Amino acid sequence: MFKITNISKKSIYIFSFILSSIVLNPQIILSQSNQFYLKEHLVVDLFTSTEWMRCSVGQRWNGETCIGKIISLNHEQMDEVLRIASDQLGSGWRLPTRKELESLVCKDCKIPKIDSKVFPRTEPVPYWTGERNKFAKKHYWSVNFYTGNTYGRFYPYQSLAVRLVRDR
Question: Does residue 12 lie in a domain region?
Answer without folding.
Answer: no
